[in-house]
Amino acid sequence: MPADYNGRWELVSNENFEEVMKALDIDFATRKIASHLHQTKVIVQNGDKFETKTLSTFRNYEVNFTVGEEFEEHTKGLDNRNVKTLVTWDGDKLVCVQKGEKENRGWKHWIEGDMLHLEITVIDKVCHQVFKRTS
After folding, report:
1. pLDDT, tens digit, for every residue of 87-102?
2. Which pLDDT belongs to residue 132?
3. Distance between CA 73 and CA 80 in Å, rounded?
4. What Rg value do the Cα atoms of the chain yield, rounded?
5. Which residues contact 92 (CB under 8 A, 6 or more apart)?
6. Beta-carbon-side half-sphere exposure of residue 118 (alpha carbons within 13 Å)
7. What is the mean pLDDT of residues 52-77?
8. Helix extents (H) in 15-58
9. In Å, what is the CA distance from 116 to each residue of 8, 54, 68?
10. For the range 18-21, what are the long-range contacts, defined as Cβ-Cβ under 8 Å and sequence gap of 24 or more?
11. How crowded is residue 88: how many other Cβ atoms within 10 Å of its Cβ?
12. Is 21 helix (H, G, I), strand (E, B) or coil?
């Protein structure tokens, strides 16, 4: 049985986010705003089906997926690219590979206690975000 990702998660730490945004060619002003935002993740999980929302006062981003099924993702509100996205399980960890313009792009999610970890990778840059479950 996979881990239970359901809930509302509040950002508590955000390491190296600006470097990942630079690797995605996000402009200076947007990077400055985004690096100071308080993010909330809302995840609804039904087995291998996920509805995810990342909410902030600046921009919101929503992506829905089924683990093991590749899909076309338009990263509107992030870096506005089209990527082919595949999310798979690695034990209780969600592993995402995004194929497109940028090499070595993707993310990993895992849970430790009441903390949700997100590791975002683009080229050779890695960001580590931690969210605390609030509901």
Report:
1. 999 999 999 999 998 9
2. 98
3. 10
4. 14
5. 2, 3, 110, 111
6. 21
7. 92
8. 17-23, 28-34
9. 10, 13, 21
10. 19/125, 19/127, 20/120, 20/121, 20/122, 20/125, 20/126, 20/127
11. 14
12. helix
User: What whole-number distance in Å separates Cα of residue 35 and Cα of residue 39?
Assistant: 10
Q: Is 31 strand, coil or helix?
A: helix
Given a cut of 70, whether residue 60 has pLDDT beyond it is: yes
**CA gap 8, 17 in Å, rounded:** 21
Residue type, 10: E
Label residue 28 exposed, middle or buried (CB < 10 Å: 0-12, 13-18, 19+).
exposed
Record the pTM: 0.92
Q: Is the pLDDT of residue 1 over 80?
A: no
Amino acid letter for position 16: N
Minimum mean pLDDT among 25-39, 55-69, 103-117: which range?
A: 25-39
